[in-house]
What does this fold into?
Amino acid sequence: MDDKKPMPKTEEEWKKKLTPEQYRVLREKGTEAPFSGAYVHEKRKGMYACAACGNRLFSSDAKFDSGTGWPSFDQALPGSVKYEHDAQYGMERTEVLCSRCGSHLGHVFDDGPKATTGKRYCMNSVCLELREK
It folds into this structure.
């Protein structure tokens, strides 16, 4: 996807652009089943972009195996994401959204690698698109 292409503005336009699974996760704040995503064990180098709008989010250099079943990163690219408090399902979490289109990507936790940022950006594969180097 090209970062410069205009984004859909209505939910009907998003439904036409995204697959049903992408729409459920990105626009309705769903989640994919653990260990089911295409990028859980991905090792190729490149940049991970938002599957909805093409905004670059994470470098493959920030990816690590958290063992949780979802692609995990220790940091996002500066300005690429925004955060919202999420108290759904009786849990207190920090939701991660694309800063460009506002789509749900996953959550960030404070149990990542202590040698780096200490953060674990737990993302849904369906929300990401790997652009290889």
